[in-house]
Amino acid sequence: MISVEKPGVLTTVQDVGRDGHYHIGMPPSGAMDQYAHAAANYLVGNDADAATLEMTYQGCDLRFGEDAVVALAGADMTPTLNDEPIPTWEAVAVEAGDELSLQYATDGARTYLAVAGGVDVEPLMGSRSTYTLIGLGGHEGRPLQAGDELSIGDPPGRSADLVGSRVDDEHVPEYADKSAIRIVLGLCDYRLTEESKAELCKAEWTVTPEADRVGYRLDGPDLDFVPREQPFGAGTDPSNVVDLGYPVGSIQVPQQPIVLMRDAVTGGGYATVGTVVSADRGLLAQRRTHQTVTFEDVSLEDALDARTRNEAALEAIRSSLE
Amino acid sequence: MTDQRIERVSLPKPRYEFGADDYVFVELDQAMSFDANFQAMAVTQQIRERDPPGLIEICPANASYMIHFDPDEIGPRALVEELKEIAAATDLSEYQWETRVVDFPVLYDDEWTRETLMRFRDNHQDPDSTDLEYSARINGFDGVESFIEAHAGAPHMVTMVGFVPGLPWCFQMVPRDRQIEVPKYVQPRTDTPARAVGFGGAFTAIYPVQGAGGYQLYGRTPLEVLDVEQRLPDFRDSMVFPNPGDVLQFRRIDRDEYDAIREEVEAGTYEYRIEEVEFSPERFFEDPTGYNERLTEVLYA
Amino acid sequence: MYERPTLNRTATGRNMTEETTITAPMPGVFYRRSDPDEAPFVEKGDRVEAGDVVCLVGVMKNFHEITADAAGVVGEILVEDEAPIEAGQELVRLTSE
C-alpha cells in the first residue's frame, strides 16, 4: 500500500494508454513521456505496460505501507527518502514506513514513479490510465488527493536484485537541451501560406501556462491562412475545416498552434498542419510552461529513423537490467 | 421548391497524408457531402474486414478518415498502397449497411441552454439575438418556429463520433439547398450544459458532458450519448451510444415529456426507441424525402 | 487545492523575528487576487495567520492557492500581479515573531 500525504500539482496513474477506442472519441491517455515511463518500469523489473504515477511540475509526498522497490525517471524533482537524497533513473529499495518526498521540477516537467509490481488500480477497457475529462480509469478517474491509498501489484521475483541498478548516462535524456522538436508537415498544411509554414519551423514558440495533458498551447508569431471560399460544412473562420480526426501529436492552428497530447480531443474543425514525430512527443511533454520550443520539419524516413533509435535505446535499457 | 434528389458529388482524388510515423490521414474531400461520408464509412468498414496487420485505430470522419498504426508491423508507404487498393475495390453503388433509426427527443429552446447562451452573448456574432433567432435569420427562415420545424422535420445521420467520447456529428438527410449552415461562436464558450443540442458548420452535435463549446445552442435532449457507468440498457455493449451511420430523428418534445423521460433515464430504466434497418445510399440519393419517411415510419409504427 | 510552499528560513536580528520567503512550488502565472475585480489577498504590512492564502499560481488551467506557513506580517511582494513565474522563484516575504 502507498498512502498519498501530499498529492503535488497533478499526479495521475498512467500506463502505455488505452488504444482501440479513438473512433468513439476516447483519446489514449497514458504516460505523456512514454520513454521515462518505460525506463522507470524496467528499472524495477516491470514490463513497460505496468502503471506508474505521473507527477507534473511538483511531485508528491508518499508513505509506503510495505517494503517495495521503486524507481523515478523523467524530470528531476529533488527526491528524498526519509529526508535523504535519492537518485533518479535508479532502482531504490524502500521499507514499510518510509516517506518518499519530491519537490518541484528543476529539469523537465514530468516524473514517473514505478514500483515493482505496478500501481494496482482496476484496469478499464484494457488500461489503468487516468482520463480525467470524463473521470475514467486510474484511481477513481481523477488526480490523486491527500489521503488516497494505492495498492501495489505482485512484484516480479527479481526486483530485489535490481536495487542500485541505473540507466546508463547515454540513455538519460537532456531535458534542458534546446534542440528542436521534429515534426512532419502535412495533414491540412495547405491552409497555411508558404511564409507561415516556414515561420512555424523557424519561430521560437513559448509554452503557455495552459499547456497540459490535453494540449500544448504555444505562443509566438501570428500565422496566415491561404484565402479561400470556405467549403460547405467547414464553418466560416479561415482556420476551419470540415471536422476531421486529429492524430495524437498533431499541431492544430485555431490561430496560435496547439500540439495535441494524450488526453486531447480526437477530432474537430480546426486545420491541423503537421505532427510531432512519435520519438519526440515525450520530449515535448518535458518542456515546462514559459520554456521555448522550436520545430524542425523532417521527412517521413527521418521520423521512422527517430522511432527506431528511440526503441533501440529503450531496448538497451531493458536488456542492461537483465 | 427544390429538386428533391440528393445531388451526387464526384469526389476529388483522395489525399493521403502522413501524420508523422504512425498516422495516415486520408482526406476524401474538403467539403461535406453524403458521397464523401459514405465513402469514408465504406472504406473504413472494408479496412476493418480486411484487418491488415499493425492497425491500432480506424477512425471514419465526416469527409475523411484516419488510421493509427504500428510502423514496426506495417510500413507507412505500404499501408497507403493497401488503403488505395481497398478504396479502388469499394463501390458505393453496391454498398448498403445495417443501421439503426433512433427516436431522439429534444426540448428546443430549453431554459438551460438559453441561460448559457445568454451568459456568453459577448462571444457571439449577434449579441442581440438568441442562437435560434440568429440561425433562423441567416438561413432565410421567417422565425424560430419554422427553423425548429426544419431541424426536427427530417432525420440526421451520424457522420462522425469524436471530439470527446460519445459526441456525434450529425448531417441532416436533405438536399444541399435545404441544409442548415451556421458559423461557430466567434469566441468559444467556457461552458455548455451536458446533453445540449448544438449546431456548427453543417452539423448538429450533442454534447455528452458539460464543458467548453463553440456551437450555436438550440435545445437539450433528455437522453444520454455517453454512459460511463453503463447503467442504461442500451449501453450494455459500449459506454458510447451513437455509431457512424445511425439515423437520428430529432423529435420536438415539451417540458413534461422531457421531465418524464429524464426521470426514467436517471433511474437507469429508459429504453431508447430503436429500429434496425438496411440503409441503401442509392435509394436515399434518389428520393430522400420518401426514403426518410419510410425510415421513420418504421420507428413510429 | 492547498499546496504548502517551500520556505527558506533565515533568523534576523536580536528580538527573534524570523524572515521567511514564500517561494513558488510550481511554474505558472502569479495572481495577487482571486478575480480582477477583487481586492488582493494581502498587502504589505498585513497580518496573516498560518494557512491564509497570500496568492495564487495559475497553471494547466487550474489555480493553486499559496498559503502562509506561519503567522506573520507581509513584507515585500516580489512579483508583479499576473507575471509569469518559475518554480522556486521568491514571491512574498513574511516576518514572524
Radius of gyration of chain B, taken over Cα atoms and rounded to an integer in Å: 20 Å
Q: Strands of the largest sheet of chain B, in order across it?
A: 5-10-8-9-7-6-11
- Residues in helix, % of chain A: 10-25%
The chain-level mean pLDDT of chain A equals: 97
Query: Most extensive interface: pair and counts?
Result: A-B, 51 and 58 residues
Helical percentage of chain B: 25-40%
Strands side by side in the biggest sheet of chain A: 20-13-14-17-16-19-12-21
Amount of beta strand of chain B: 15-25%
Mean of residue pLDDT values of chain B: 95
Distance between termini of chain A?
A: 27 Å
Total domain modules of chain B: 2
Subunit arrangement of the protein: heterotrimer
How do the helices and strands line up, and which of them pair or pack?
The complex is a heterotrimer of chains A (322), B (301) and C (97).
Chain A: E1 2-6, E2 10-14, H1 34-43, E3 52-56, E4 61-64, E5 68-76, E6 80-81, E7 84-85, E8 91-94, E9 99-101, E10 107-115, E11 149-150, E12 181-185, H2 194-202, E13 205-207, E14 215-219, E15 240-245, E16 250-252, E17 258-260, E18 267-270, E19 272-276, H3 278-285, E20 292-293, E21 295-297, H4 300-320
Helix pairs in contact in A: 1-4
Chain B: E1 15-19, E2 23-27, H1 34-50, E3 55-60, E4 64-69, H2 76-88, E5 97-108, H3 111-119, H4 131-138, H5 144-153, E6 156-161, E7 168-172, E8 196-200, E9 203-206, E10 216-220, E11 247-252, H6 255-266, E12 274-279, H7 281-286, H8 288-300
Parallel strand pairs in B: 5-11
Antiparallel strand pairs in B: 1-2, 2-4, 3-4, 5-10, 5-12, 6-7, 6-11, 7-9, 8-9, 8-10
Chain C: E1 2-3, E2 7-12, E3 17-23, E4 28-31, E5 47-48, E6 53-59, E7 62-67, E8 72-77, E9 84-85, E10 90-96
Parallel strand pairs in C: 1-7
Antiparallel strand pairs in C: 2-3, 3-10, 4-6, 4-9, 5-8, 6-7, 8-10
Summarize the structure.
The complex is a heterotrimer of chains A (322), B (301) and C (97). Chain A is an alpha+beta fold.
What would you say this structure looks like, in words?
By secondary structure, chain A is an alpha+beta fold. Chain A has helices at 34-43, 194-202, 278-285, 300-320; strands at residues 2-6, 10-14, 52-56, 61-64, 68-76, 80-81, 84-85, 91-94, 99-101, 107-115, 149-150, 181-185, 205-207, 215-219, 240-245, 250-252, 258-260, 267-270, 272-276, 292-293, 295-297. Chain A has two domains: 2-175, no CATH class; 181-312, Beta Barrel (Cyclophilin), CATH 2.40.100.10. Chain A has four helices and 21 strands. In chain A, strand 13 and strand 14 form a beta hairpin. Chain B has 301 residues and is of the alpha+beta class. In chain B, 29% of the residues lie in helices and 24% in strands. Chain B has eight helices and twelve strands. In chain B, the strands form two sheets. In chain B, strands 5-10-8-9-7-6-11 form a seven-stranded mixed beta barrel, surrounded by five helices. Chain B has a four-stranded antiparallel sheet with strand order 1-2-4-3, with helices on one face. In chain B, strand 8 and strand 9 form a beta hairpin. The radius of gyration of chain B is 20 Å and the shape is globular. By secondary structure, chain C is mainly beta. Chain C has a single domain, classed as RNA polymerase II/Efflux pump adaptor protein, barrel-sandwich hybrid domain (OB fold (Dihydrolipoamide Acetyltransferase, E2P), Beta Barrel), CATH 2.40.50.100. In chain C, the strands form two sheets. Chain C has a five-stranded mixed sheet, with no helix packed on it. In chain C, strands 2-3-10-8-5 form a five-stranded antiparallel sheet, with no helix packed on it. At the A-B interface, strand 15, strand 18, strand 19 and helix 4 of A face strand 1, strand 2, strand 3 and strand 4 of B.
